[in-house]
Amino acid sequence: MSLATVLAQRPHRRFNPLTREWVLVSPHRVQRPWQGSVEQAPTETRPAYDPGCYLCPGNERAEPPGGGPRPRNPQYEGTFVFQNDFSALLPGEESEEVAGSSLLRARPERGVCRVVVFSPRHDLTLAQMPVEAIRAVVDTWTEEYQALGALPWIQHVQIFENKGAIMGCSNPHPHGQIWAQESVPGEPARELASLVDYREAHGGRCLLCDYLAEEVAAGERLVCRNAHFSVVVPFWAVWPFETMVLSHRHVGSLAELTEAERDALADILRRLTTRYDNVFNVSFPYSMGMHQSPTDGAEHPECHFHLHFYPPLLRSAQVKKFMVGYEMLAEPQRDITAETSAERLRSRSETHG
Fold it and tell me: Does the annotation count 12 as an active-site position?
């Protein structure tokens, strides 16, 4: 039996070399009688300015914890960054690990949490913003990564966006977050370990450079690309329409991108998010985050700048993928193959519908 037949028709497991975990793929299950609705969902209409939105220009934000005066946003005209009023991490004071026993351990964790508002317009998303405005977001991300990373006690800067109520986003105004902390969290730490091991085992080569070369040669999981970035549905994707955005040049972080590469990143983000919206003719929810070099002061030649998009929608705007049962107790599982998802995204228009 050929590899192509196994991948397209037979239950099999795929290996993720970044996290060194497996995903079960069951392509035969798409033949199940129930396949969910495919009708177009109602389109949400939002005003360009919402007087009740705590992210719109000039508006008051939420009451801070413990009470006190409510901060007011400036009349910003581009991007706007502020300290998260309900931060998950606090600067605090340095402290040592607290251990009740070898099994009961806790360690104080310091950090800084910021909100990045992408646009003063309440009614836009990245897919609807002009490339020039997205480029301003890229510049802001870069400035924040460098500023927070320059703090001597910050080792990792996580930039991310949760889009849509289904992803737990409490405000539809276009925005993302940045959490900077004194430890490298679990997921990027696992990726770093894999990147280091691959580099040492392959004469200094980069895992993601080699992977991207294979994907470009194969083409079947490639969604779109420009001169400096490619979008692929990873061979090991877990979420139905999961994608990864990879820089063509081996760079470790936003700070290393040239002006042309920043433009290209803005362009590819708009093109990808537009394709997402056109899959089910709805503003496509997702969690997006970028992985880049830690800010611990060490050299990280193994790092390759990339972004992950994790959208939950499965077969329609109203049917989503749930991580339950087997996924929670054993390992991730998917029915639609990565190749099928890539073809679906590749066939979608880059003109916003």
Answer: no
